[in-house]
Design brief:
- With about 450 residues, the chain is of the alpha+beta class.
- A hairpin with a 4-residue loop joins strand 4 and strand 5.
- The longest helix has 17 residues.
- The protein starts with 9 loop residues before the first helix and ends with a strand.
- Helix content is about 25%, strand content about 35%.
- It has two domains: about 220 residues, PmbA/TldD superfamily (PmbA/TldD fold), CATH 3.30.2290.10; about 220 residues, no CATH class.
Length: about 450
């Protein structure tokens, strides 16, 4: 992508965001905030050695929120011409006139704005041609197909490269923005035996192309994960320890974060209401939020409202230290924003001393979960029930693959039943966590 394809520079869209605020003020708004963004990307996929698709995207947009006292209006556009920006502000102002007053709405507090926006090294454009991307995807798929002759088909391998930048301004006089990139390689294949067919996949994502796993390694892992699932069996209903491998363990952390996020808290739709300062999990669980990791997949010097982000301990020895709040949810709860408008930042879960094999030995007999199906968790009660597949373990050794089962429990209890956190830490998103072992869950089969 040697041709950047950007119509404007970062400085130009910063100026445009400030101009939008001036128009809002001229229209009578007491306060306003605006964000402009541009992005470009390329995605190439191959299947069975043949090119499946080549996609390019070049996106741009502006969104503006205006406040007339405690009335709020919002509008957006993908046209960044001067007239379109003015028309979008007018639309937002018109909407605000018809909305009900909300005493909690408004800009984030001025004293929380980021003062010094540090460079977190988030932008590493990948100057890769389509032909080069095709060859990488082919090598990835070939590596997967070569793992075992029982791998008979492929869902394809893909290579993506993307970069962009944004600018955010509000009436407090804050203007900030920065460029960022994200690239990825993935592969999914299908294996077949006399009794069944199975599929699995693997992927890698990073800010910089040199930080990706190699295409051959990604393909090999995808192939190995697929083959090991062949000839899966059912098991009898039981209550046993359950080990969530690292790619799925982040889902447990996501459930916890959702339960301590402002929206669910002020709506009283969380199983962790009024839990600040209380023991919500096993003493083994420690979660640190660090928004300022260089090249981090969820790093940011400020949140979606311009609030400065800070490193903090969310959970210490299983005790909840803080919530995840935007300015609106914070006001609803009588608290202050935690710099999480737009979501959490890099969450680092402190690993234990055991690797995956060590956790298997610690478990003894039980179930390793490698795939989850459906979205079976009640955020209000914490009740958890999902379809699953994985492996049956006896005496610390994987015996055979398992499928067509359901695992069930209650998330509030599951968090307290964590008996091990692996050092096989996987970084594929905003959560950095190893495999997690739970003391007990119900495993059901027909």
């Amino acid at each position: 992508m040697s041709d950047t394809g950007f119509s404007y520079s970062l400085d130009e869209i910063k100026q445009m965001s400030e101009d939008v605020l001036k128009v809002a003020k001229q229209s009578g708004a007491s306060a306003a905030e605006a964000e402009l963004s541009l992005s470009i990307g390329q995605n190439v996929s191959v299947r069975m050695g043949e090119v499946e698709h080549i996609e390019y995207n070049r996106d741009k947009g502006m969104s503006v929120t205006v406040y007339f006292g405690k009335q709020k209006g919002h509008a957006s556009t993908s046209d960044l011409s001067p007239q379109a920006l003015k028309d979008t502000v007018a639309a937002a102002c018109n909407i605000a006139k018809y909305t009900a007053k909300d005493e909690f709405c408004g800009l984030a507090d001025a004293d929380l704005m980021a003062k010094d926006v540090q460079d977190l090294d988030l932008n590493h454009p990948w100057d890769i041609t389509v032909d080069e991307a095709i060859e990488i995807a082919r090598s990835c798929e070939t590596a997967a197909l070569n793992v075992d002759n029982r791998i008979t088909n492929s869902e394809g391998a893909s290579v993506s490269a993307g970069t962009g930048f944004f600018a955010y301004s509000n009436s407090h006089g804050f203007t900030g923005g920065y460029p960022s990139s994200r690239h990825g390689v993935s592969c999914s294949v299908i294996a077949e035996s006399a009794s069944n067919m199975q599929r699995d996949y693997w992927y890698s994502t990073a800010r910089a192309a040199e930080d990706l796993q190699s295409a051959i390694e990604i393909g090999r892992i995808a192939g190995e994960r697929t083959v090991r699932r062949l000839d899966a069996r059912k098991i009898k209903t039981c209550q046993v320890p359950v080990l969530f491998e690292a790619p799925l363990a982040s889902g447990l952390i996501s459930s916890l974060i959702s339960a301590i996020s402002g929206g669910n808290l002020y709506r009283k739709s969380s199983f962790l209401l009024d839990s600040l300062g209380k023991q919500i999990a096993s003493p083994l669980l420690n979660i640190h939020e660090d928004p300022h990791i260089k090249k981090g997949l969820a790093s940011s010097p400020f949140d979606n409202e311009g609030v400065a982000t800070t490193a903090r301990q969310l959970v210490k020895d299983g005790v909840l230290q803080g919530y995840v709040l935007s300015s609106y949810s914070a006001r609803k709860l009588g608290m202050k924003s935690t710099g999480n408008a737009g979501g959490n930042h890099n969450l680092i879960i402190q690993p234990g001393s055991n690797d995956f094999s060590g956790l298997l030995k610690q478990m003894g007999t039980g179930l390793v979960v490698t795939e989850l199906l459906g979205h079976g968790m009640n955020m209000v009660t914490g009740d958890y029930s999902r379809g699953a597949a994985g492996f049956w373990v006896e005496n610390g050794v994987i015996v055979h693959p398992v499928e067509e089962i359901t695992i069930a429990g209650n998330m509030a209890e599951m968090l307290k039943m964590i008996t091990g956190i692996g050092n096989d830490v996987l970084v594929q998103g905003s959560k950095q966590v190893g495999s997690i072992l739970l003391e007990r869950m119900t495993v059901a089969s027909d």
